[in-house]
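Task: encode each sequence below as structure tokens.

Item 1
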Amino acid sequence: MNRVPRGPSVVALGGGHGLFATLTAVRRFSDDVTAVVTVADDGGSSGRIRSELDIIPPGDLRMALAALAAPDERGGLWTELLQHRFRGNGALAGHSVGNLVLAGLTELLEDPVAALAELAGVLGVQGAVLPMAQVPLEIAAEVTGLEDDPRVVRTIRGQVAVATTPGRVRRVRLLPGDPPAVPAAIRAIQEADVLVLGPGSWFTSVIPHLLVPELYDALQRSSARKVVVLNLAAEPGETAGFSTERHLQVLAQHAPDFRADVVLADAAAVRARGERDNVGRAADRFGARVHYRELSVPGTFTHDPERLAEALAGFAGVALPEPGRPRSEHTLHVAGPERTAAGTEGD
């Protein structure tokens, strides 16, 4: 007999540490969670595996599995193993165990979705982790500020290169331009009660989901409540100097017809009345209302799981479980805040 999932059906779209934060929050009030994950990483362990084996980069997918793994001793052990990164100077140096396991399963089963489902079963994942496309993607960005003439636009290709460019990113696109979406991801969006986009690297983890035509069409047609979660701060390189308002503006530039219900912003990041007015006008382009909450771990640029969970649960129309309810958490061991160096976000 199949167990009835606890909570609303939630689909979270993103990648890396931003998606990890969302999933860690959402699992506090729902077991019916699907992660739809970017597949454009070309740095670190993921980039090496992608280049050598011509498969979907596994790093962001591995991190999503870790976020949704069963909150028990066995799930914790497997999560720690998958996140373990080999040290030393040999061929394995820098690779995470989980990336290699996913790569091996993908070769054996000849299907990345089947590989993810198999590993999810080992981890006791309640929900699913899916790639946003069936093929590895490449990010291409139009960038200014790299030449003496500020009007000159250069094309920068590759997620790491885009995330670390000293220029100003104006627009991104995917290569190939019309990638096939994963059917299971489309179905999950169609059946969702709540859709969450962001936080995360804006140009390389968040916006790309709106550039996959089938995925975008499903998002537009969905009757689910749509929540856009903004970053706590601009990222060095990719969105350096961006205001909260600017993040919404570039999202609208890439997906002018996109509609959302809620824009969730950190209250500490947008304090001035005038700036909040600007953010409100930017959200109006999506038909969304801005909600401000204290979302960060004090003194950091990291989302607090409990605070984010409380906000998202409210938008989903449910209450968080009682504080005394046992529910262990897996910890993602990273150096520094969510604003991490490019190529390491999900590698």
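Item 2
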Amino acid sequence: MSPHDGARTSIAANFRYQLDQVASHWQASSARQAGLDAAESLHQLRVALRRMRTLLTLFRPWLKRGWRHRLRSDISWISSALGAARDYDVLIGVTLPALAAAHPHLTDWPAVLGAARAGQHAAHGRLARARSRQRYARFHRRMQRCIDGASNPFRSRARSMLDRRRSRFLDRARRLLREYYRALYPAAEHATQLSADACHRLRLRVKRLRYTSEALTPLLAKAQHASFFTHLSACQDALGQRNDAAVAQRLLEDLPLDAPARAQAQQWLQRKIAQAMRAAEDALKQLPEPRMRSGKRR
């Protein structure tokens, strides 16, 4: 049963349903990892982990603290290994080809690409070792046992309310959406002037709003769906492009570039960062505050 179909549904059923949807996405992406779309699969695995983290926050009042902390710790551990591999995938598949096309005579691009592939190989090796550890298997089992109902992740004090209507859940959802949206401002109104650290914090806040609102999509006011998600998606994409360029600036320090070539490459990446931040600021200025559907509480 979907927790969004308007029927009477418990907080427990709501959580298990959404976790099952995320886990199915995780398993499908994981199964494709060895294929030609391995880089995209890595990205989808990271998205699934972010959605899991969002659910742990959204349902936090009803979850056992120890169970939630263990799962969150495992998510952070796996995300770190996935992130390093993904950084090199983007560098090799997107950034370096664009940089070489813009400056074909700047340096010996095959040598640079070869060095980057060595870094990519090492990062994917660390990811493979992480996925072979027992901790990874325990993470998978813990998540699946919750979905199947074989384990109970809910606090004993919350048990009496788990089968009630969703008024408390809806109240929490409204409050979180409002807090997450307002946390974007006023920084979002002058995003092009933010420091690197402030840009990073803004990106995390946009992702938090994005994945929380996606989890609550059927509960949002339908009239604003298109505008809200269009601008939010555009902002996240722009901030992601800014992050890819910033990561490339860091990774280039370990690649075989002479000083003049490195300086030009860094300048090119800095222009990409400025362009991305202008796009992010434009999207945020048009982003409406998310509103949940009105009507009687269920």
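Check on item 2: The chain has two domains: 8-155, 164-290. The CA atoms of residues 210 and 232 lie 7 Å apart.
End of task.
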